[in-house]
Design a protein that fits this description.
By secondary structure, the chain is an all-beta fold. Helices cover 0% and strands 52% of the residues.
Length: 122
């Protein structure tokens, strides 16, 4: 059984940074693409970033491109999301997910973590 556990969320002022981590267990981590999604209250879940199995390919939503960086450490079964220049509109629950390809579609991911809250104050 696959488990994904996120950490690293919190409260930060606008312009600040946070680094989210997601530790995976249950299946071979390097066999899976990983993604980060977010969901704000009253809004649909949206794609943030994704990374291929080897880490060679990364993809970003336009809203975070240049500010967020996704990376993975297959030896530690961990995927990270470095978030810089955070803005109030980045406030949301952030979820990591495991899929077969680094898609931007949430329906392409089979396993999801419980999420970690990021709140950016102005």
């Amino acid at each position: 059984q696959v488990q994904l556990v996120e950490s690293g969320g919190g409260l930060v002022q606008a312009g600040g940074s946070l680094r989210l981590s997601c530790v995976a267990s249950g299946r071979t981590f390097s066999n899976a693409a990983m993604g980060w999604f977010r969901q704000a209250p009253g809004k649909e879940r949206e794609f943030v970033a994704s990374i291929s199995r080897s880490g060679a390919l990364t993809y970003y939503a336009d809203s975070v491109k240049g500010r967020f960086t996704i990376s993975r450490d297959n030896a530690k079964n961990t995927v990270h999301l470095q978030m810089n220049s955070l803005q109030p509109e980045d406030t949301a629950g952030y979820y990591c997910a495991r899929g077969s390809s680094p898609s931007s579609l949430s329906s392409d991911y089979y396993y999801w973590g419980q999420g970690t809250q990021v709140t950016v104050s102005s």
